[in-house]
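Inputs:
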Amino acid sequence: MKLHRITTLALKESREIVRDRLFFTLALVVPASLMLALGYGLTTDMEDVPIAILDYDRTPMSREYAHQFIASHYFNFHGYLEREAQIDSLIAGRRVRAVLVIPPRFQRDLLRGRTVAVQSIASGTIVQPAETVGGYVEGTTAAFSQKLATRHVARREAVSPRAAEGILAPVRLQVRFFYNEPLDSRWGIVPGVMMIVLMFSLPLLTAVSIVREKETGSIDNVYASTLTPAEFVAGKLIPYWTLAVVNGLLLWGIVTLLYGVPFRGDPWAFLASMMLFCLCTTALGLIVSLLVRTQIAAILVMIVLTLIPAVLFSGVFVPLDSLGAAGRFQSRLLPATYFNLIAQASFLKGVGVETIWPDMAMLAVYATVLLAIAWWRFTKRPRR
Amino acid sequence: MTFQATGDYLRQLAMLSRKEFLQFFRDPVLVIFLIYAFTLSIIASSTVVSTQLRNATTVYIDRDRTGASRELVHRFREPHFRVERRLDADREAVQWLDSGQAMVVLDIPSGFQEALRRRRPTDVQMLIDASNSHVAFMGASYGERILRRFADDLDPDPRAERAPRVELRQRFWFNPNLRDEPFRALEQIARMTLLFSMLLPATAMARERERGTVQQLLVSPLTPVQIMLSKVLPMTCIILGATTVALFVVVRGALGIALHGNVLLYLALSGVFAVNASGIGLLIASFSRNLAQVGFLSLLVMPPMNLFAGTITPLESMPLLLRPLVLISPMYHYLQVSFGLLLEGTPPRMLWDSILAMVFIGGGLFALGAWRFRRQFT
């Protein structure tokens, strides 16, 4: 390996990036713009869920129950329904997310100390919002039920509301949310989006740049030169890797400064992990470029190999525990998973090297293996 | 246009399209990826992926070690929780959460059973890693449910007898068991359609430009619209074929998902969506000078279209500024139509707004692309 050959190649490569003006802006602007748009819009928080109520009872108590939903900021009251037939078009037409059906004799049965079943109807097609809305409705109903029963017992037994509560609910669950106290979905998603953007943007650039040389034939100059495979790999990767790290720093700034996600961990450990991760991704781009012949194929392969798994299997939107065995296996094959764990640990959990070192080590192993493959697959005598 | 001229026009278009077909099927990587995208990738992303809380790794601290505390821990089980092990020290609990090995820690106080027997209220603590807020919220919700049932099964306090209670029965229409597969399978078809229909015509066009063969085409007796259509129509046909196979063989066959509504209308709209996506691609191609630029500009458009399609972030939760962008996204409307038609059996007359939106947005994009393309060469 000769250093001056590597620097020459790296220099040539960086000139190419800089001189293709659109290419250059895209390399620096696309990742940041994606980060801005996705960080701004991607949220799984739900507020003002449109809901309608079909009240067959129309008594003070049923209205009191309905009021729990009307007054809550989780729901946006769409109105009372007149007949059951209206439900179909509201749900199927996606005008509301849920319809609550209060049965007749709601008040009478409650006053007689019975358990009354209320029904909620929601579309289950898209699972996550259906679950969330179900959770809201269930929580609101449980709170109302508790309030009603407490009032009843307190009056009948002539005890304080607190004591009545204890009689009714002998065990209470005290939930404490760690790392994301306000339960803001952006805190979890935005660092993940940073990972996703880094995962596909720069590697794609790397892949395309080499395949383009193949397509135009200018790679023959490399084949004919004195460059060794190792020098080629190093010289090609250095500029793209640098660009990737610069992008990473930029995105890091956006995540913390613009979207207000806290950074509680060790910045140096995170920086090191990011550099390793960028090495993995650009090396992946390099390998893909050595395997395919056309730029179209390179773009498609990169998207299928990086973007889609990074979104689905890395744990950003889909919790790792929820993946089946096959999915967990697949997720363990991705550098994205490890980097996402590191990002969550560094941004939200505030832990340092002592906890994240296994994931960092995996990234290092990954990078080494990918570089070795790239070096091994690069040959100056390609079969045509 | 005379009959003769129309015939010539179509014949020229057919010849050009044939060339594109040949070119596509001679690239083995592309063909393999097309097959993968419309078969295995649909199975993988629909059966493996779920945003539901499943098997959340749970560890617990049992300071009571009695029948009651063991019974409570036992109730935290599949499908939502999976109890990994008992911890001895508080410090350990935080370590399990910090390292991401556990998502939930249950903490049962000492004297738990005794308190229950004496009807003294007691608190059980549940610590949840809330990095993923939705899952954390659902974890708390299921935890509450488990505790309510646990309390209901206890020896009831006579004083609590005949207290009024409201119980919720939840019904989820169209998908009573909240299965992830149906909507994810259709979403993946849409994603793959977007990927191929947007990129392939755009890159084909950019490649002609890079190599200068577009000049040859322009001096030939072909119109710019013919050249554009010859890129779009073959890809749309390929996608439609792939979608049909995916729908019957993969979605209905392998995944066993019942398809309700009008499949023909769905396929027709899939074609419209493919043309929409190609329109976006060609518009991008008209702004780019080489293939890498096409790739990158597409990547500026594709992830937001995928992620803002109403399946991750519900439309009503989006920031107001972004909602209009979602409403002009063909992907959003295509998914509305796909889910409505195939999964919910909604009559088409209730989906007319999304259908019209697709037709108009698609037409507009295509016209814009054609205009830009023509302008570049005159």
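Chain B touches chain A through 129 residues (CB under 8 Å). Flag for discussion at group meeting.
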